[in-house]
Structures are given as structure tokens and as C-alpha cells.
Amino acid sequence: MTGGIAVANSTLTFLALFSLAYVAAILFAHRGTARHASGLTEFFVSGRDLGLGTAIATLGATEIGLITIAYNAQKGFNEGFSAFHIGLAALVGCAFVGALGFVVKPIRRTGVLTLPEYYEQRYGRDIRVFGAIVMAMGGILNMGLFLKVASVFLAAMLAANGADVNVNILMITLIGVSVLYTCYGGMRSVIITDVFQFFLLAAGLLFAVIFLTRLIPLDQAVAVVKEHKGIGGFDPFANESFGLSYVLWMILVAGVVSAAIWPTALSRALCIEKEETVQRAYLISSVIFLSRMIIPAFLGVLAFCYFNIPAIGGSELLSGHGSDADLVATPLMLGHAMPSWLLAFLAVAMFASFMSTQDSYLFCWASILSRDVLGPVFGTVENEKAQKWGTRTLIVVIALYELYWGLIYEGREDIWDYLAVSGSIYFCSGIVLLAGGLYWKGATRRGALWALILGFSAVVALSPIKTALGLEAVSAPLIGFAAIGLSLVGFVVGSLTERRIRGQEEGAA
Amino acid sequence: MTIDGWVSLWTVLLWASAGAFGLVTIYVLFGFVRRLSGFR
Q: What pLDDT does residue A111 have?
């Protein structure tokens, strides 16, 4: 007992030291923020002055959150090595975007500050407002579980080491901190913080892998997965939870959509100084898109082994966690296996990864609602003061919603599947409107409107709605593909009929 | 593909991703330090 308390005290001491160093680094990084000129471009796209390295870091930090680590670890724990296909799909999708500049290059050329602003350029003001509402709804619903998952993950990690920290209070404090600095400096604050957080979480993840593979060598992990999961633990096409439609869905969701359609990532393309840098940033970042999935999934695989190798003796730790066992297995392993200093460092890296995603998401959805919904409705699109205060207020409102949603949602799907489905509410029509508008001259307002309405059908894939409609047997990827298909058909038919009517009217005139 | 084939694929991908992630991080860090030092 005394030994356990000593370990916990040592962890908390290291945690306090690393946390202080982290806060000092963040304050140091922010010292020059206030010097930058004011203006909407500065606030929304960080003055559009990002170089290659900063662009990669901010993209990486945004896309590797604690939620990313948690859901990939959960997939690795449940599905073994076959979960690695999600990383491969992400690499293929992001490399495709980087190699061709798909969406990211032409959208940067338009010079817009937010994505719905492009909708107005291309389709009209009403589509901007409607599109922004759909975009924000999908995005805010998507981030609803971030806080809850982060709390569970960190609580399990520290508890396994005997250090009882009230993580809910800690998380609320961290949300408060990220709300404060995001409100203060806008996108520049988000990006500066992202760069520091990127270094921290990269080091934390790599240290964890190096340490744990010394404890459970890869050969041993392969043998344990082979024994317990058979071919399904390696072959995603043979795994009952995946299959061909899921793999194709991942290439789209984890690759193309995450890089080129999802606003928190695509907004980085809008911040890059030179148009030619955009493609290079995405091409190099495709490695991060691979790593962000594979490394945490590998930690999940190692956790599965950790609790299934009797000699290690960790199985008791996992008992009593019920349906949350797959989610808490990885943090329990980290807390149980790691030395105090490494655990404390990893915990701070996890805080950093939580905040780097949190700030980007808060800012992204708040700025879209302020600039593209409230702005056009109240005529304040170019009013700097109204835009800044609108964004700041909405950041606070979304943070409060996140606390509330984390408490009430009771879906049964894996976290990653929840994220893919909630995100699809936006991206099923978003991919059609963005790619269609940028690459098809015949696209019109009516096509965009129909695409937005039909793409919203993706909401059916959310677990509680699926159950209510009696559609449990239909997989989320199939519903997603159907929603994109519907949206595309609506886009093409709507555009063609509008052009035909226009042609007839012009002919009659 | 056999289990051994999948194991080989995932092993290569795992170490390649960890190595490449490390290299990208060092590249970004190097650029950041140069910037802080006043070099462009």
C-alpha cells in the first residue's frame, strides 16, 4: 500500500513538473501573438502566412487528438492488426489529395476565409447559410464525445498507477484554458499552440511504442493475436467487423474526407502562404495520417496482449470495466506498465493532444457559425468587431454543449464509427458541393440545395436513429455511400434541370 | 493473402510509419528552431 502511494506521489510530482513546463512553453510561444495586426484575415486564417513546416505541424496536431488515440487503440484492441488498414487507407487518401491537390489547391486559390464562403461564391448566399448550418451541425455533433472519451482515457491511465485525479475537473479546466487562448488570438493562437503540441505528442507516442515493444516484442504480439483472433486479427477482408465496404469507406473517410473535405483540416489549406506549398504540405502530411491511425492501433493491440499474457498478470486490472473494457484497456496498460516519469510525460502529451484538437474544432465551428450563418443573417460579414465577438461567444457555447452531450449520448458503436457517421452528416453533401463546384462548370444553386438536403440522410446511420427505424442490419458504410450517392444524384439532376429551365427562359426571351 | 503475408505487410507499415513520423517531427522541429534562431 505504501509503495502504491509512493508511486502515485512520484507520478503526480512528475505530472506537476511536466505540466508547468508545458504551460511555460505555451506562454512563451504566445508572447508575440498580440503584436500581429488585427483584421479578419489575421483572426480567421492567421494572416495567411503559414510556411511548409508550420502547416504540417498544425495539420498533424489537429488531426492527432486524444480522441484519435483512444478510438484507434479501441479498434486495435478489438480487431487486432487488421485495424491497421484504416491507417493505410488514410495514407492512400491523403497522398491522393496531396499528389493531385484535390480540392485543397483550388480552394486556396479562391481566397476565401471559410468554406461556406466558397459556397456563396459558387452557389449563392442562401446555400452559404444552409451549408454552414449542416457543416456545423455535423461537426459539433462529431466533437460531442471528445471530452467524455478523454476523461475516461486519462482517468484510467492515472488510476492504474494509483494516482487518483479528478479528471472531469481537470478536463473542464483544460477546456477553459483552450477556450481562453482560442478566443484571445484566433487562428494564430491555435496554430502556435499546435506546433508545440505536435512535438510533445509525437515524442510521447514514439516513447510509448519503444518502451512497450521492449515489454511485449512484436513477434509475441503476433502470436497472441493469432491465437485469440485468428485470420480476422490480420486480414480486414476476413474480419466480420470490416469487409470490403468498410475498407472502401475508410479510404474515403479516413483519407480523402479527413484531408480535403473536413473543415478543421481544409481550413489549414486556407492559412498557407503560397499556393504551391499546399500540395507539398498535404503530401508530407499523408505520413502523419498513416501514423495517427497505426501507432495508437498498435498500442491497442499491445494492450490486448498485455491482458491476455498470463505471465504479465494484468488481467485483473481489466475486470469490472464492463462494456468500457475495450476503451480503457490501453490507458490501463500504459498506467500499469510505464515508469512514473514516462507516464507523467505521456499524460501531459495526452493533455496536449486533447487541447490541440479541441482548440481547432472549437474555433472552426464557431467561426463558421459566426461568419457564415450570423454574418449573412445580420449583415455583419465584414464587421470585424461583430465577427470576433460572435466567434468568441460561440466558442463558449459549443464548449458547454460538449460537456452536456458527453453526458447524455448512449450510442453503442465504436467511437471511430460514431465519428465517421456524425461527420458524414456534413461530408456526404460537403464532398459533392466542394468537388462538384470546383471541378464541374455546370453546377448550380438548385443542384447544391438538393445535394445538401439529400446528403443529410446520412444521419440515419447514427446508432439511436438506426435502432428507431429498425435498420440495425444495414451497415454504416452502406448508409454513408447511399447518402453520398443520393446527394450526387440530387446535385446533378438539380443542376441540369435548373440549366434547362434557364435555357428555356433565355430562349423564350 | 496468408496470415504471414498480412503480418509482413503490417510489420513493414508499422515501422515505416513510426520512422516516417519521427523524421517528419525532426524536420518540423529543425525548421522551428531555425526560425527561433533568426535564420530563414
A: 82
**A291 and B11: CB-CB below 8 Å?**
no
CB A349, CB A23: distance < 8 Å: no
Nearest residue in B to A218, CA atom: B11
- Spatial distance between the Cα atoms of A325 and A484, rounded to a whole number of angstroms: 34
Tell me if A97 sits within 8 A of A259, measured CB to CB.
yes
CATH number of A2-27+40-407: 1.20.1730.10
Beta carbons of A295 and B17 less than 8 Å apart: yes
Q: Return the pLDDT at B39.
A: 44
User: Taking CB atoms and an 8 Å limit, are B3 and A51 in contact across chains?
Assistant: no
What are the domain boundaries of chain A?
2-27+40-407, 409-509
**Closest C-alpha to A200, from A29, A399, A7:** A29
Say whether A199 and B29 touch across the interface (CB within 8 A).
Answer: yes
Which ipTM value was assigned to this complex? Answer: 0.89
Count of A-B CB contacts under 8 Å: 78
CB-nearest partner of B28 from A56, A205, A295: A56
Range from A214-218, A339-343, B33-37 carrying the lowest mean pLDDT: B33-37
User: What residues have CB less than 8 Å from A448, skipping those under 6 apart?
Assistant: A119, A122, A123, A127, A131, A433, A436, A437, A491, A494, A495
Q: Measured between CA atoms, how close is A129 to chain B, in angstroms?
A: 37
pLDDT digits (tens, 9 = 90+) for A289-321: 899 899 999 999 999 999 988 877 667 777 777
